Amino acid sequence: MSRPFNPNDPHAAPTANGLPYRIERRVLAGIPCLLELPPEGEAVHAACLVYHGAWAAKEGKLGVYSSLATRGMAVVIPDAPLHGERLTETPPGLNAREYVWESVRRSVAEAPALLDALAELHGPLPTFAVGSSMGGYVALTLARTERRIEKVAALITSGVWNEPEVGEPEIRAFLEAHRPNTHADGFAPTPLLLASGDHDPTFPPGAHHEPTAGALRAAYRQAGQPDLFQERIFAGVCHYTSQGMRDAVVAFLEPGLKR
Question: What's the CA angle centered on 104, arms 209 and 96, to 5 degrees?
């Protein structure tokens, strides 16, 4: 339904850069999601999955990438397993690191069903993924395992995956099967952006960004597609998604957006 409004004083919709967009809550493939969408009556031309970090929830990512919705994209923010509305799914007996990685493992496992549900909702669309911190683990894994995802941005994260506290066998097997730095040859031809902060205490660049970028850079070069891998380190940024990182993600995804 479209509603007329005064262009000199329109209704107070959410806006990004002065342009309106919509917010909806939906349950897709059993996953509670928030969707940021183009204005009512405008078509959706692409979709972007946005994965949040550990101990957070989908609501924390509202507004971060909303400018994509004003460009014709559906921004889809799921609650990660064991987080937000899904806290009750937490199995007993996990330590803190196993809790994080069990959420990652389940996020990756349920991604195909989430993509199927999105296709039912909007039709087949170019689809991207962005993840921060724990969400970056998910995004990096999907870059290798889910070919329906055409571009990936992984922020304030790591491909080292050295987790001595993880002993649960199924989670341990996931780490060994998908560790980016030892499986880097599976990423091409998916375009990938890796972005970090130079003051990140959780993932110091020397211990995390540099070895991850080195492994990926070599793998993309070996595949004959070095231009499909981009890396950025942002000065003064700690463990958070900065405005500069957000802008870099939007620029990275820009060729797939409506003009």
Answer: 85
Backbone angles phi, psi at 190, to 5 degrees: -75, 120
Which whole number is the average pLDDT over 168-187?
97
Burial 122-144 (b: 16+ CB within 10 A, else e): beebbbbbbbbbbbbbbbbbbbb
User: Are 64 and 48 in contact, with CB atoms under 8 Å apart?
Assistant: no
50/215 Cα distance (integer angstroms) = 24
Distances (CA, A) of 222 to 90, 153, 225: 41, 21, 8
DSSP 100-169: HHHHHHHHHHHHHHHHHHHHHHH-S--EEEEEETHHHHHHHHHHHH-TTEEEEEEES--S----TT---H
Burial of 195 (0-12, 13-18, 19+ CB in 10 A): buried
Which tokens is 59 given? 């609501």
CA distance linking residue 64 with residue 242, whole number of Å: 10
Q: How confident is the model at residue 259 (pLDDT cuts 50, 70, 90)?
A: very low
Residue 144 has pLDDT above 50, yes or no: yes
Grade residue 2 by pLDDT with cuts at 50, 70 and 90: low
Separation CA 91–CA 117 (nearest Å): 26
Measured between alpha carbons, how far is 159 from 178 in angstroms, rounded to an integer? 9
- Amino acid making up residue 234: F
Q: For 13, phi and psi rounded to 5 degrees?
A: -80, 160
